[in-house]
From TrEMBL:
Protein name: Cleft lip and palate transmembrane protein 1 homolog
Major site of localization recorded for this protein: membrane
Membrane topology: Multi-pass membrane protein
UniProt record similarity statement: Belongs to the CLPTM1 family.
Domain of life: Eukaryota
Keyword Membrane attached: yes
Localization in the cell: Membrane
Keyword tags: Membrane, Transmembrane, Transmembrane helix
Pfam family, one: CLPTM1
Length: 588
C-alpha cells in the first residue's frame, strides 16, 4: 500500500534534522576517538610493568617465522568441541600456510552457503572452532600422532544476540489512517531505537548471523617476562603450561563487521552466506583495533557516543575515498578552529559593545528563543549529555547577549517576580529601532505562515509521542529550515543606514569560512537532497553581507563595536598628545 503523499519529504526533513545535529560534533568525535586510542596504546607500551628478569624467565613464541601450518575450521552448536571425526562439522581445511609471512600464499579465503538447523533458527547458538597445527600433525588430542606443543586453537561464536528494537511509542495525534499504519510498522523496524528508553517489559533478544569470519594470526615474537606481560597483551596470550611459552595469538577480526551486515535468524531463513578468510596481522594493527574498540566502549559509557555512531565512523573509512577522507579530516579540524575563533570573537564583541546603534536587538532575542527550542527538543529526545551540555551552554550565552543588547530588570511589584526588558538608549534613540521593527513586522508574516504550514504537515503525516513533542518537533524543524530568515532584519537595517561599520566583521568572517566548509560537507557526506540544498541558504545571506560591505563606504561618524567612532578616536588621540606635551613642559 502506498504511503501518504509527502512521506519522502517527511523522511528527508527528519534525516536532515538528525544530520544537522550530528554534523557539528562529527570532527570532535573522530579526534577524541583517535586521540584516546593512540594515548592508550603508547601508555600501555611505556608504562606497563617492567620487572627485571633473567633470560631464563622470559617466555617466547613456540612457533617460528614462516613455519608452515595446517588449519581446520569446524562449526558446532556446542561451545566445547572434540568431534574431530565428524566430516560434516569440518567446513574448511587449508594446508601449508606460512606463519607471519606477508604475501599471497599466507592469505586464504573461502565463500560458502550454510544451511541452519531448526534449533539455530529459534535462538540457537553456533560456534566456529579453528585449529592450527604444524604441517603433518593432527589437531585431535586422541590421535596417536598428536603433539601438544604443535597444535593450538580457539573458539568463536558465529551467532550474536542483540536486544530487540523497542516498539516505537510515537503515534499519529489525529488518528491512524490505513495508509499510515504501514508507515508506522516500517518505522518500528528501522527506527525503533528512537522510542522511549524506559519500558516495563523484559528485554527480548534476537539472534543474528555473522556473515564474515576473519581469522588473523598475530605476528608477535616478543619475549615477555614471566607473569609480567603488558596488560594489553596478557589477556590474549595462550600460554603452554609445561614450558611457559605461548602459542601464536588467534584474533577473530570483527572490527569492520558492521551491525547492518548482520542477518537476523528466524524460521523463514533457509540458507546463510559465510565468507571465511585467514591471514596474518601485525602487532601494531592488532593493538590499534583493540584500543579503538575499547575507546568506543568508554565513549558510550560516558554518554559521548550513541549506539550506531561507531559503525557510522567505520563506514566513512570503508566507503570513502582515502584522499577525500584525508581532506575531510583536515577540513574538520579547520572547522573546529574557525568555530572556536568565531565563538571567541562573538563573546569579545558583546562584552565590549557599548552601543546598539545599527544592531538588531530583536534578532538577539529570536536567536535565544531558537537556541532554547533546540535545547528542549534535544532534551525530549534523550540525546547524549555532551550534546545537551553544549546546547545548554549556548543557550546561556544567548541569554547573556540579551543582557548586553537590552536592559533586564526584575519587577517585584507582583506576587511573582518577573523579568522586564527595556531597550537601550543607543537603540531606541535613533532610526535603528524603527528599521528593526519594520523588518521584523514583514518577516514575521512570512515566518508565521511557514511555521503554520510546517506544523500542520507534521501533525498530519508524522508521528509524535505527545502534543508537547509535536510542538517542539515543529518548532525545531522551523528553526533548522527557516532560521536563516532571522538574519534578514540586519540586512534591512544595513540597507536603511547605508553602513555596515557597526557589525562584528571578524566573527562573521569566521562564520562565513565555516559556511564554506559546510558546503564541502554537503558534497562529501551522504545526506538528503532537501538538507543538501538548505546548506547553501546561509551562503546567500553572507554574500549579501559582503556585497553591502563593498558598496557602503566606511562611516567615521558611526560608532564601532567598542562604542567609539572615528571622530572620537581622533579627538582622543589629540587629547592624549596635548596631555603628553603638558607633561613634558612641566618636566622641563
Amino acid at each position: 500500500m502506498a504511503p501518504p503523499p509527502g512521506t519522502e519529504g517527511q523522511v528527508q526533513v527528519q534525516q536532515g534534522r538528525q544530520q544537522q545535529q550530528q554534523q557539528g560534533g562529527f570532527s570532535q568525535m573522530i579526534t577524541g576517538v583517535i586521540r584516546m586510542a593512540v594515548f592508550w596504546y603508547f601508555a600501555s607500551k611505556f608504562f606497563s610493568p617492567k620487572t627485571p628478569s633473567e633470560p631464563s624467565q622470559l617466555i617466547s613464541n613456540l612457533f617460528h617465522k614462516a613455519e608452515p601450518l595446517d588449519m581446520w575450521l569446524y562449526v558446532s552448536e556446542h561451545e566445547k568441541f572434540n568431534d574431530f571425526g565428524n566430516e560434516q562439522a569440518l567446513i574448511w581445511h587449508e594446508r601449508n600456510i606460512p606463519y607471519a609471512v606477508w604475501g599471497p600464499e599466507s592469505t586464504r579465503s573461502l565463500s560458502l552457503k550454510y544451511y541452519p538447523s531448526e534449533a539455530l533458527k529459534h535462538n540457537g547458538s553456533l560456534y566456529a572452532h579453528v585449529f592450527f597445527a604444524r604441517s603433518g600433525y593432527p589437531p585431535d588430542p586422541n590421535d596417536p600422532e598428536y603433539l601438544p606443543l604443535a597444535a593450538f586453537g580457539r573458539t568463536h561464536p558465529v551467532v550474536t544476540y542483540l536486544p530487540k528494537s523497542r516498539a516505537d511509542k510515537r503515534k499519529s495525534l489525529l488518528g491512524n489512517s490505513k495508509g499510515s499504519d504501514e508507515v508506522e510498522t516500517v518505522t518500528e523496524v528501522v527506527d525503533g531505537t528512537e522510542g522511549d528508553s524506559i519500558d516495563d517489559k523484559p528485554v527480548e533478544w534476537v539472534s543474528y548471523w555473522k556473515p564474515n569470519i576473519t581469522i588473523n594470526l598475530v605476528d608477535d615474537f616478543t619475549r615477555y617476562p614471566h607473569n609480567a606481560a603488558p596488560p594489553n597483551v596478557a589477556p590474549y596470550l595462550n600460554v603452554e603450561p609445561s614450558t611457559g611459552d605461548y602459542y601464536p595469538t588467534i584474533f577473530f577480526n570483527e572490527f569492520w563487521l558492521l551491525k547492518d551486515k548482520l542477518i537476523p535468524l528466524n524460521e523463514t531463513v533457509t540458507e546463510l552466506p559465510l565468507n571465511l578468510e585467514v591471514g596474518p596481522i601485525s602487532m601494531t594493527k592488532w593493538q590499534i583495533f583493540l584500543q579503538i574498540d575499547q575507546s568506543f566502549q568508554i565513549h558510550r559509557s560516558y554518554g559521548s557516543m550513541l549506539e550506531g555512531e561507531a559503525d557510522e565512523l567505520k563506514r566513512v573509512f570503508l566507503e570513502g575515498n582515502p584522499y577525500l577522507l584525508a581532506i575531510t579530516m583536515v577540513v574538520s579540524m579547520l572547522h573546529s578552529v574557525f568555530d572556536f575563533l568565531a565563538f571567541k570573537n562573538d563573546i569579545q564583541f558583546w562584552n565590549k559593545n557599548k552601543s546598539m546603534e545599527g544592531l538588531s536587538a530583536k534578532s538577539v532575542i529570536v536567536s535565544f528563543l531558537c537556541q532554547l527550542i533546540v535545547f528542549l527538543y534535544l532534551l525530549d529526545n534523550d540525546t547524549s549529555w555532551m550534546i545537551l551540555a553544549s546546547s545548554g551552554i549556548g543557550c546561556c550565552i544567548e541569554f547573556w547577549k540579551i543582557g548586553k543588547a537590552m536592559h533586564i530588570e526584575i519587577d517585584r511589584s507582583g506576587r511573582i517576580p518577573m523579568l522586564r526588558f527595556r531597550d537601550r538608549e543607543s537603540y531606541a534613540g535613533n532610526k535603528t529601532k524603527e528599521y528593526d521593527d519594520m523588518a521584523m513586522k514583514y518577516l514575521s508574516y512570512v515566518l508565521f505562515l511557514l511555521v503554520a504550514c510546517s506544523s500542520v504537515y507534521s501533525l498530519m503525516y508524522e508521528r509524535h509521542k505527545s502534543w508537547y513533542s509535536w510542538i517542539l518537533s515543529s518548532l525545531t524543524s522551523c528553526v533548522y529550515m527557516f532560521g536563516f530568515i532571522m538574519m534578514c532584519p540586519q540586512l534591512f537595517i544595513n540597507y536603511k543606514l547605508q553602513s555596515v561599520a557597526h557589525l562584528p566583521w571578524r566573527q562573521m568572517t569566521y562564520k562565513f569560512l565555516n559556511t564554506i566548509i559546510d558546503d564541502l560537507f554537503a558534497f562529501v557526506i551522504k545526506m538528503p537532497t532537501l538538507h543538501r540544498l538548505s546548506v547553501f541558504r546561509d551562503d546567500i545571506i553572507f554574500l549579501i553581507y559582503v556585497y553591502q560591505r563593498w558598496i557602503y563606504p566606511v562611516d567615521k561618524k558611526r560608532v564601532n563595536e567598542f562604542g567609539f567612532g572615528g571622530d572620537d578616536d581622533q579627538v582622543t588621540d589629540g587629547a592624549e598628545v596635548a596631555a603628553t606635551n603638558e607633561d613634558e613642559k612641566k618636566t622641563n
